[in-house]
Structure prediction request, 205 residues.
Amino acid sequence: MIIGWLKGRVISTGADTVLIDTGGVGYVANAGSRLLSKLAPGETAEMHVETKVTDSSIQLYAFATDDERAWFVRLQDVPGVGGKAAMAVLDALTVAELMDAIALGDSAAVMRAKGVGKKLAERIVGEMTGKPPPLGRFGAFAADPSASVQASDLSGGARGEAVSALTNLGYGQSDAARAVAAAARNASGDDVGGLVKAALKELSQ
Prediction:
């Protein structure tokens, strides 16, 4: 059984886990500090979940949005990046900040993640450069804005859509990502049309 989403009453939170009661069953899920700071025992919460099954265990990883969950999975495509390191990266950087770091080759930003050193940060940036952002479970870039627990920055989906729009126009993935990252400094992070227009200006310079 693969668990992809949970809604229920928060029983308790720990340093890096949350215990949530869903229909009388208590699920323990790993979670980052930004998500945990939004959860309070006794309150109802919703969270996207990635189920990781190994020979010795079944672990759940909880996220505020499916966007974050999708990046959690993508990060583990990089050699040397496991669940712990992927969670640390997403706890240190929002999706938008991670996309910027990859587009601009900024491995120093990725090094802000706990336990991620220079070599691993450079590998993450290098392996992901030029690749399209990951899709959510149902083929959407955007995070779910209806969730009761949300990330502090939902602009990652808009940036992903802007990059996709530019690649559909014939621009290379790396060029499109760099242009969107630069455009996002001056355009609204959740306005896809505005990001595309600003990125086109960057590409024409």
